Task: structure prediction
Amino acid sequence: MHKSVQNLIEIEKEIKLNLSNLNINNLPKIIAVSKTFKIDKILPLIEYGHTDFGENKVQEAIDKWDNLREANSNIKLHMIGKLQTNKVKLAVKLFDYIHSVDSQKLAKKIADEQEKINKKVKIFIQVNIGNEDQKSGINKVELGKLIDYCKQINLSVEGLMCIPPNDLDTSSYFSEMNSLNKNFNLSELSMGMSSDYLKASENLATYLRIGSKIFGQRS
Result:
């Protein structure tokens, strides 16, 4: 069995055991973050039956996934990186989910492009939960306004997404995200990466974005 498949199985077991010990029934889906990894690293996971993959650059994703998707129609592709408005047309065509919507301008561009090709992309609103200057995401004070706007222009808002500050207090950020998600009555929550996926799943994340823990460190 390929190492990446072994790693994925171990992560799934670890999450299941941890949640079961805490009496939490919510079992999140794992997005295998395949950005910068070549097809030969990804194929074993596809052959194993894994369906959710994450990329953060549109052109790299097109080069990698166009042919793979033709052969594997059940694959779900997630855009998890910052999306420039000039790349929206290509992103809407390729991706099933966009996790990084953080402005009305970007939301409007996605709505316009998906209408042109009659496709519904599932949207996550990225929240800058730690109010960090260097990070993308909407300030939580502005969040309600952006969610309302997205719904008005017929975007399919699934839930919220965050990349919390890299400090010891990750759980409190995840807990706050879970509360925000519930307040806005959203069903999906995208948070947690290789270093903190257990804490994220304890706070009811429904999608975990895991890269290096599955694929190993990038060479």
